[in-house]
Amino acid sequence: MITTAPKYSRTMPILIRLRGALLLFTGLATLALNVQGQDSAEPWFQEEAAAAGLEWNHVSGAPVDRHWFPEIMGGGVALLDYDGDGDLDVYLVQSGHLIPEDGQVVPTNRLFKNMSVEQSAGGDPSGPGFVDVTEAAGVGDEGYGMGVACGDYDGDGDVDLYVTNVGPNRFYQNQGNGTFKDLTSRLKVGDGRWGTSTAFMDANSDGKLDLFVVNNLNWSPGIETPCNNYRNRPDFCSPNNYNAQSTDVLFIQGRLGYTDYSRKQGLHLSAGNGLGVACADYDSDGDTDIYVANDATPNALWNNNGTDNFTDVALAGGCAVNSTGTPEAGMGVQWVDVNQDGWFDLFMTHIRRETNTFYMNRKGRFRDMTNMTGLGPDSVRLTGFGMGFHDFNLDGRLDLYVANGAVQAWGRDESYGEDAYAEPNLLYQGLGNTRFESRGEGTASPVVGSSRGAAFGDIDNDGDVDVVVVDRDARVKLLRNVAPRVGTWLGVELKGSRFKTAVGAVVRLETSSLVDDEIVIDSQYRLADPAYSYLASNDPRVHFGIAPGHDVTGLFVRWPGSTEEVELKSPTTGSYIPIQR
Question: E strands of 266-425, at which residues?
């Protein structure tokens, strides 16, 4: 800690934002100097799925002469500690076959147990090793899978699973002994449409986890229509070719299970081609709001009115369409406070010929600031799906990883192999002041594919964030973080109790540093919610990178349903701190 300094000041969020704006307009060279001298060619990730025992192939089921729309969109992935042993396990959502033929083997979802704890106890701490425990756990759903949500819906201390499908979804209750029980019928949450991304969240601030399900088209084989790509060859259609938009579902948890409150909450008033979802208290009024990324239709921001209903305010709020007034192909989405002012911004991935979009939150209203961030140019040539902002190199600044993959064959790059839809993923390094710089793919050798779901978390518990990527019709990828560490880190594991969920809490880390003989206090904000990216559920723990010269001076939490912060115990860096609500 710094004990002497001639001056003391506290940088408030609005001052930080203004300072960032001044730097932005006074010269990008200044920002470039803040990359801590790291070589832009130095890899930050290393692909290790096979070496770690994570052996799994996604199957779309699409024959070469058929282009049914759902077959280009899967599959999903979750990182969760299903057995409560302290490390992250991996659940992979399989697509399979929309109409299985007689005698055809139906591939199922798979659960891989992380054996790191067991290996360490046995004297062999050689990194994460995974074992397939699907049959023993009872979570091998055979539906045409899409996305997944993880959360402790019954408050018994273990993680439950909800899986979306093209067709009835599945709800698996964790029994606390390594097995799950299918409660779909009992809880009445099967739905029957084409579910995509999904999230557990507390919609009515009663402390219990409700469930939001995003639906895409009202799809059936009968609505399929022939489409050609720009080379006039048969290919997958745009969702707008079908004119079959669907509405999303909000299940509210009651005493005996879940009830569909979609009509009562007003969700029936807005239909779209839904793909992504993320939940947060974007307007800091104490309740949880819902953002839905729609494909080629305006996005929806469901403002929680706190009076048992929601209102779509995306258009009035400035986040329904881009800065030109055009609806974009929304896929992955995340609430993230990029400029660290205490208001959660929005980032979304889009299709080729559209930039990914960054909406800055200005006290509850949004502005498309993509062109000011450096996140636009590289994304125009690619189609983004899964994504996540994290401080990968522990320098106190958020970075961004985007998983890409085409939905139409634009012309195969032979270096990418036989997959006509393969594209390289992208890594952006945060420069501070809401600016980013591309680091290419972020790996020493090319890692390309038709990437879809991407989940983020510290799989080996070494203090940095790794990535699991699902590629359509290819092997899963485990990207272990090998980025040179600039600073140190701190993690927080918020734990709810019965009818007091921690999902949706906001954690603030306060640090001090000496700048020009003045002590400056900075804050970083993290949202404790695993539901972001695309078809994914992520590490529920929040993670902070701490730059050199910064001392931790405070750790605070704002629990869901509240507008007040609570100061937590004095944190220790280099570890995960459990906090019980």
Answer: 274-280, 289-294, 300-304, 310-312, 333-336, 345-348, 357-362, 365-368, 384-390, 399-404, 423-424
Residue 183 in any domain: the answer is yes
**pLDDT tens sequence across 225-270:** 999 998 899 999 999 999 889 999 999 999 889 999 999 988 888 8
Task: Name 363's bridge partners.
Answer: none
Is 10 within a domain? no
Which pair of tokens denotes residue 111? 């659960």
| Res 313 pLDDT > 90 | yes
Instruction: Say how far apart CA 38 and CA 32 lie, in whole Å.
Output: 11
Sorting pLDDT into bands at 50, 70 and 90, what band is 160? very high
Instruction: Let me know if residue 522 belongs to a domain.
Output: no
Give the tokens for residue 175. 């029994």
Whole-number Å distance between alpha carbons of 358 and 361: 10
Give just the sign of the alpha carbon dihedral 298, 304, 305, 308. Answer: positive
Please tell me the distance from the alpha carbon of residue 547 to that of residue 530, in angstroms, as a whole number: 25
DSSP 3-state of 519: strand
Asked whether residue 431 is domain-assigned, the answer is: yes
CATH of the domain at 271: 2.130.10.10
Residues 382-419: tens digit of each pLDDT: 999 999 999 999 999 999 999 999 999 987 677 788 89
* Nearest one of 153, 155, 249 to 198, comparing CA atoms: 249
Which pair of tokens denotes residue 517?
């003989």
Amino acid in the structure at residue 473:
D
Contact between 31 and 23 under an 8 Å Cβ cutoff? The reply is yes
Cα pseudo-dihedral 93, 97, 101, 102, rounded to 10: 10
SS3 for 129?
coil
Distances (CA, A) of 223 to 63, 217, 245: 18, 10, 12
Range of the domain at 358: 45-481
Look at the chain and report how many structural domains it folds into.
1
Residue of 174, 299, 302, 309 whose CA lies nearest to 252: 309
* Residues 272 and 298 sit within 8 Å (Cβ to Cβ): yes
**Omega prior to 487 cis, within 30 of 0:** no
CA distances from 559 to 12, 15, 80, 501, 538 (A): 22, 26, 21, 9, 19
What are the φ and ψ backbone dihedral angles of 188, each rounded to 5 degrees? Answer: 60, 50
